[in-house]
Write a structure and sequence with these properties.
The structure holds 2 protein chains of 2 kinds. Chain A is α+β, with helices and mostly antiparallel strands. Chain B is an all-alpha fold. The chains are: A alpha+beta, B mainly alpha. The interface between A and B is large, with 58 and 50 residues.
Chain lengths: 334, 274
């Protein structure tokens, strides 16, 4: 039975099925997972059996390391999919990350949901743009706990994630302005919060949002930035260089507010405290990442070592006509 | 004239393609007459490489980044890398020299293709500013280069069954060429595996995921799978050199489509992810 499971014929069938599964799943996000999982499972069983019974593999160090690594990659990738999480979150400048704001896009059934332990405070950010609005480097400043639990400044970017409790936070093109507002009701305590305007500069023509304060009527907001969008030259998106007027519309009234100004509306007063920003992060969680890397590199190292020993000992330039690949015959499971 | 002013690299690239054309012509004529002018071919190959290097440098100075972005740059960089791999092999492995009949026309084809493309440039996304991109690209280039060496041998094995068989009478028998070709394909497997690993590390840093089955990833994996399957077949069954040559050509076609076909689908490498 083990011999049957370890056959090269089964390997080739598994590879053909995996190839078919990959091509069938191509560009089809809703494709059944088993199209990939089934052939991978078959190949894993085949590989395990081959490692167990085939001296062509288990007595050759490099080849053994390579095949064990392949098995390890399949297992780690499977574990990774079971515990992974993909999500997005928007965090307002000078505010702490709120786990409740995370929008989970996908997660494995065994994901531990450890967001409650994650804490950082969003600072200001800058984004460099080239001509024609080509986005370049993003530098998002945050305060995050170091190993000793102290909050220290860090800079996060598209390819420099903030890693907290295994969660990787990457900056994204999704970011924008966030007017900080204080609602002072006629009765009760004032509340302060920020309204996230649509992503900038993607929606520079549509910087509006709406909000209904407690005990008040719905308010519509438009942000009119003083600095027009530059599409013809390089520029940097930076809150320090940005200012604007907040246009408030409620109950048929239209009021323009500058930072610090207050408008009287139905049910209370609204103060435009200042213009802040918000940063949208992509969140990725997969604790198998470093192990995947180590196992993959070890596997290729094993393969290279094997070929070096088997084939490098009599290089083709030295043997000329007699250059033979036959040394490798029978090295694989049969 | 305007195009030249906007893209000062073009004259160098044109000269490089011309040099590749002359090199291919001299190499084919030499093999056909049984008088290989090896030093001349190698010298001309190195000349073509110098010219293409100057072209890349001129473009680099103009755009501010290496040739990583669009089809023009992919072809340009491969004109360089395939030339380097083949020049090295031509110098170090004399047995490979008659394969210039197959290999140099393939490189020339890429050069001619390059000539019909617009040399437009673009800004380098910030996610491309990482050493992992360099590692990924370098491993990919060596992979394709080694594949091309094996294709040269496979091509010779097939040309021997045509009226051109006399061109290769001084080469070792098919069984030896087959063995050498598969040695080279094993190297290709190592470098393709390294390319996939470096690419995954880059993708994790760049887009927050190490694998997402984007078109390039999918076809690179299919190529890896095909190469692994071909090696299993070759090592486990009595495959004739002719069939082995066909399998090598099949793997190369897949690799070629991955490198030069997928960008047609997604316009630029991993475009959908930028």
């Amino acid at each position: 039975m083990l011999r049957l499971l370890s056959s090269v014929r089964l390997t080739l069938v598994g590879m053909a099925l995996l190839c078919a599964g990959v091509l069938l799943s191509y560009n089809r996000p809703a494709a059944p997972l088993w199209w990939l999982v089934a052939p991978l499972g078959l190949l894993a069983v085949n590989l395990l059996a081959a490692i167990a019974v085939n001296p062509g593999i288990n007595r050759q160090g490099g080849l053994l390391v390579f095949h064990l690594a392949l098995l390890g990659i399949v297992v780690l990738a499977a574990v990774g999919r079971l515990v992974h999480l993909d999500g997005v979150v928007e965090v307002t400048e000078d505010s702490a990350f709120l786990p409740g704001d995370v929008q989970v896009l996908a997660k494995g059934p065994l994901h531990p949901m450890g967001f409650s332990k994650v804490f950082f405070v969003q600072g200001p950010f800058t984004v460099d743009y080239g001509p024609e609005l080509s986005r370049s480097t993003t530098r998002s400043q945050v305060l995050a706990p170091d190993g000793a639990g102290r909050l220290v400044p860090m800079v996060v970017g598209d390819d420099h994630p903030l890693i907290l409790h295994g969660y990787r936070f990457y900056t994204s093109s999704n970011k924008g302005f966030a007017p900080l507002l204080t609602w002072i009701p006629e009765h009760g305590k004032p509340v302060t919060g920020a309204i996230h305007m649509p992503s900038y500069p993607l929606f520079d023509w549509k910087q509006d949002n709406r909000w209904t304060p407690p005990g008040g009527a719905e308010i519509r907001f438009w942000l009119r930035l003083k600095t027009p969008l530059r599409a013809d030259a390089a520029w940097t998106m930076d809150r320090k260089d940005s200012s604007g007027v907040l246009i408030v519309s409620s109950g048929g009234r239209r009021i323009e507010l500058k930072p610090g100004q207050t408008a009287r509306l139905e049910g209370g007063s609204l103060r435009f405290d200042e213009l802040r920003t918000w940063m949208g992060y992509k969140i990725f969680y997969d604790p198998t990442l470093p192990w995947l890397f180590v196992v993959a590199v070890a596997g290729v190292g094993g393969l290279a070592w094997h070929f070096w020993r088997r084939l490098g000992s009599s290089g083709p330039e030295r043997t000329g006509r007699a250059a033979g690949f036959s040394a490798g015959h029978g090295a694989l499971h049969t | 004239m305007n195009a030249l002013a906007r893209a000062p690299e073009l004259p160098w690239i044109w000269m490089a393609v011309a040099a590749y054309a002359v090199t291919a012509g001299v190499a084919v004529a030499g093999v056909a007459r049984g008088q290989q002018r090896e030093k001349v071919v190698l010298g001309m190959l190195l000349t073509a490489l110098v010219l293409v290097s100057v072209g890349i440098a001129a473009r680099w100075a103009r755009t501010g980044h290496g040739p990583f972005l669009n089809m023009f740059e992919i072809l340009l960089s491969n004109l360089f890398s395939l030339g380097v791999v083949y020049a090295f092999a031509y110098w170090r492995l004399p047995v490979l020299r008659p394969t210039s009949v197959v290999v140099l026309p393939v490189i020339l084809l890429l050069g001619l293709w390059l000539l019909v493309l617009r040399p437009a440039g673009g800004p380098l996304p910030p996610t491309y500013d990482t050493p992992w991109l360099w590692a990924h690209v370098a491993m990919g280039k060596v992979f394709l280069g080694t594949c091309l060496l094996a294709v040269g041998l496979a091509g010779v094995m097939w040309l021997r069954r045509t009226r051109l068989s006399a061109w290769f009478r001084d080469m070792p028998p098919d069984v030896s060429l087959d063995a050498l070709a598969w040695r080279i394909m094993t190297l290709a497997l190592v470098f393709e595996s390294l390319m996939l690993i470096a690419g995954a590390v880059w993708a994790q840093g760049a887009w927050g995921r190490y694998w997402a089955w984007d078109p390039l990833e999918t076809w690179a994996f299919v190529t890896w799978l095909a190469l692994a399957a071909a090696l299993h077949l070759r090592l486990s069954y009595p495959i004739s050199p002719r069939l082995g040559a066909l399998m090598i050509l099949g793997v190369f076609v897949l690799a070629f489509l991955t490198f030069f076909g997928v960008p047609f689908v997604s316009m630029a490498p991993h475009k959908g992810m930028i």
